[in-house]
Amino acid sequence: MNWENIFSLAVQQALGPSAVIYCLAAIGLNVHFGYTGLLNFGQAGFMAVGGYGMASIVSTWGLPFWLGILVGLALTVVLALLLGVPTLRLRADYLAIVTIAAAEIIRQTVGSVSLLEYFGGQDGLTGFSGPFRSLNPFSGPLDLGFVSWRANDAWVMVVGWSLVAISCLIVWLLMRSPWGRVLKSIREDEDAVRSLGKNVYSYKMQALVIGGLFGALAGFITALRSAAINPSFFATDITFFAYTVLLVGGAARVLGPVAGALIFWFLLSFLDLFFISAARTGLISAEIMTPNQASLVRFIFMGLALMLLMIFRPQGIFGDRKELALDAR
Amino acid sequence: MHTGLRRIAALFLLAVVTVLAVLSTAQAASAAPRASGDGAPAECTLPEATDDDTISIIGRVCDTRETPQAPVEGVAISVEDESGNTVGEATTGANGTFDIPLPGTTLDNLGKTYTVLIDEESMPEGAALRNPDDVDRPVKINLDNDVSVTFPVGEAALGQGWLTQALQLFVGGIVFSVLLAMAALGLSMIFGTTGLTNFAHGELVTFGALIAYTVDQMPGEIRIGGTDVTMIVAVVVTFLAGGAFGFLNDKALWGPLRARGTGIIAMMIVSIGLSIFLRNVFQYLAGGQTRNYSQYAAVQPIAIGPLLVTPKDMAVIGLGVVVLVVVSLLLAKTRIGKATRAVADNPALASASGINVERVISVVWTGGAALAALSGVLLGLTQGFDYQLGFKILLLIFAAVVLGGLGTIWGAMVGAFIIGIFIEVSTLIVPAELKFVGALLVLIVVLLIRPQGLLGKAQRVG
Questions:
Q1: Any chain A CB within 8 A of the CB of B458?
Q2: Are residues B150 and B200 in the same domain?
Q3: Does B68 have pLDDT greater than 80?
Q4: pLDDT at B29
Q5: Is the model's pLDDT at B8 over the cut of 60?
Q6: Residue A233: its pLDDT value, please?
Q7: Residue B442 lies in a domain
Q8: Does B438 touch chain A (CB under 8 A)?
Q9: Considering its fold, how many domains does chain B have in total?
Q10: A312 vs chain B: nearest CA distance in angstroms?
Q11: Which of A38, A59, B166, B228 is the most buried (most CB within 10 A)?
């Protein structure tokens, strides 16, 4: 077993485009869940609307890339409003069920044969990332000695981590403002906030829109990273993984999603590489684990980790338990 | 806290060991050569491709109603090029095959698309293509080999009338509704008594399908009086195993969490973790492919008036209705049933009036999970199953429960029937691939108009 190789590939993943995507998605969930207490289980839907909005504007209608970005963001706002209107007045679990259903509606709709000419069905869309890639300053792979990335990945990482930095700054500024304090008090006690004369519904709606926009950014990166987009990128589990990222790092902490994404992707790829190479080299006999099965072990651990984390350390690694009183609202 | 950890560990260990033990026997059994499956039987095989410098379109027309598949003779086939000119014609021979050479050399034809047309008039009486779109099938020439195509033939649809079609879909909807209702009942009862929105409920459904498969794959058959009752035994075993699994779920995980006072949202996220965990354990043990049980995989439908119903569907409807009626009677008449409804209505008040709430919850988990497992094995019987069988219908279960009213017991059944029938009948208008989308949209619209659901009490839910 080549430890150096496993370690370097795990670091490559921990800093790579996948970590950026989950980090942005988790920043959005942090605004929803961490600060406002909204249980959005449809972040994958926001990502899909952003990504498909941008991709279809460019490849289906042949319009400029930047217009695609704007349309993606605008559609995300529309989705947030559509989801918010029926559910934000209801209990938290209703929002959870509606958002998870909406994400699945979006995924099945864009993947349908009926809309093949607009969204490319199950094969999805390609050929929209030319303008993005033409701006790429890297001509060769980015090599840091023991770890390296391909030129396209390196460009996605530069843009992606910059977006993460800007997003974190925005969240930090928002949450130290009076507006952010209202959000946090909604999470703690909605009725108390209402009795102070604040329009809780409107604040929740604003939080849903803003968190959704971070989700759209994650959708853009998802599409640009592989220069293609298809429905399988936005499966229900993506949202659950983003929750795990958020909870590992610590909800209601500005840098929680960043720490979470680094740790999550390092461990996930480390476990993957470790078990696959253990199964290949016969360290674990094939009767117990075939290489096919080995790639599942990481998800088994992930599910277990999410449960144990929520039971024993709901505040995550860097969170503050007092800050996040996960209550039944 | 430590006892809690130990209990959780015990649950996983037990679940993993049980499933591992039974499934390993299943894998050993399934490794043995399979009986007549869908492999090409000797009767209807593809003609040999010839290795020369011309391209032919070769193919077969097979009747899939028979096992092994039977060749269909005398079907007229023609091939058209891109501009619609007929370039070749043939009629299937006694072995069901045809061979139409394309004009020109290999190089001329590469990259072109030809259309293979079937003359439906020449089909035997009562037979039709399984896929009606196959009447003109485009074939793209990508390689310099002969291209082979297969046309499966099945039962011709009887009445093509709109009403007949709607009725046929309605029957399909009833089958699905019954299964959905069984799963939804458990979810709704668990929500009603504990407040937990259990995202791992789909895995209870999958658990049922897998346990039945394990029993099915055990070596040997179980016979009573000469009839093979393996599958019937499997259904019974599944029901019991599902109940035991639910009981363990509650005792090892959810009970201790309730005792610690874990919040409802935290428990919801724990259930997501459990769902991811179980789903991957299932895939680890059972593999990723779609499977069918050894019995009742393909059965001849019976015509009732204009409708075609398989005996399997009727058995599923019959069993499902009996189970639902029995459960309803238990809930309505028995002491524990009344206690369950009391707890669902108001746990604090029920507890104050002397009902042992923890015991009721334990019963609800056992019963709910047993129903979910039963729904899993019956779903597997009607449509096949894989490791995400339950996860795929989880949202539909939610839709049914929310439509009827979260936590209400009769509401879950009403909701399941509306959603199940709506899903099937809506395919009259919307494409079949979007039928789940329609059901989920109904869910959102209902929340907009009547958030407490059809049978829920009009109360503040937020």
A1: no
A2: no
A3: no
A4: 40
A5: no
A6: 94
A7: yes
A8: no
A9: 2
A10: 9
A11: A38
Q: CATH code at B135? A: 2.60.40.10
- Copy the structure tokens of residue A313: 């350390």
Query: How high is the mean pLDDT of chain B?
Result: 80
Query: pLDDT tier at B98 (50, 70, 90 boundaries)?
Result: confident
Beta pairing, strands B127-129 & B147-155 = antiparallel
Whether B461 sits inside 8 A of A90 (CB atoms) is yes
- Contact state of A312 with B433 under an 8 Å Cβ cutoff: no
Does residue A247 register a pLDDT over 50?
A: yes
Burial class (CB in 10 A: 0-12, 13-18, 19+), A3: exposed
Q: What is the pLDDT of residues B179-196, one digit of tens each?
A: 999 999 999 999 988 889
Q: Are A97 and B398 an interchain contact pair (Cβ–Cβ within 8 Å)?
A: yes
- Min Cα–Cα distance to chain B from A102, Å: 7
* Same domain? B291 vs B428: yes
> Does residue B51 sit within a domain?
no
- Contact residues, chain A, for B443 at CB < 8 Å: 97-98, 101
Contact assignment for B280 to A104 by CB distance below 8 Å: no
What integer is the mean pLDDT of A191-205? 93
Mean pLDDT (chain A) is 90
Q: Are residues B201 and B119 in the same domain?
A: no
Q: A113 and B431 in contact by Cβ < 8 A? A: yes
Residues B355 and B290 grouped into a single domain: yes
Beta bridge partners of B146: none
Domain that holds residue B151: 56-155
* Interface ipTM: 0.91
- End position of a domain, from candidates B121, B155, B189: B155
Do B364 and B218 sit in the same domain of this protein? yes
* Encoded tokens for A291: 């290489």
In chain A, which residues have their Cβ closer than 8 Å to the Cβ of B276?
237, 240, 299, 302-303, 306
Both B80 and B128 in a single domain? yes
Same-domain pairing of B131 and B171:
no
pLDDT above 90: percentage of residues in chain B: 33
Residue of B nearest to A88 (CA): B462
Q: Is the pLDDT of residue A326 over 80?
A: no
The backbone region for B269, taken as left when phi is positive above 0, alpha when psi lies in -120 to 50, beta otherwise, is alpha
Q: What is the pLDDT of residues B278-305, one digit of tens each?
A: 999 999 998 888 888 887 766 677 777 7
Taking CB atoms and an 8 Å cutoff, what residues of chain A touch B1? 312
Assess if residue B230 is contained within a domain. yes
Task: Say if residues A218 and A28 touch (Cβ distance below 8 Å).
Answer: yes
Which of B155, B186, B218 delimits the end of a domain? Answer: B155
pLDDT for res B48: 67
Q: pLDDT exceeding 70 applies to what percent of chain B?
A: 81
User: Are B195 and B302 found together in one domain?
Assistant: yes
Domains of chain A: 3-130+148-312 (1.10.3470)
Going by their DSSP bridges, the two strands B307-309 and B302-304 should be labelled as: antiparallel
Is residue B33 in a domain? no
Peptide bond before A257: cis, by omega within 30 degrees of 0? no
Query: Is the pTM here over 0.90, yes or no?
Result: no
Q: Is the CB of residue A32 less than 8 Å from the CB of residue A99?
A: no
Whether B9 and chain A come into contact, CB under 8 Å, resolves to: no
CA distance A145 to chain B (A): 36
Q: Which of A255, A233, A231, A232 is nearest to A245 (CA)?
A: A255
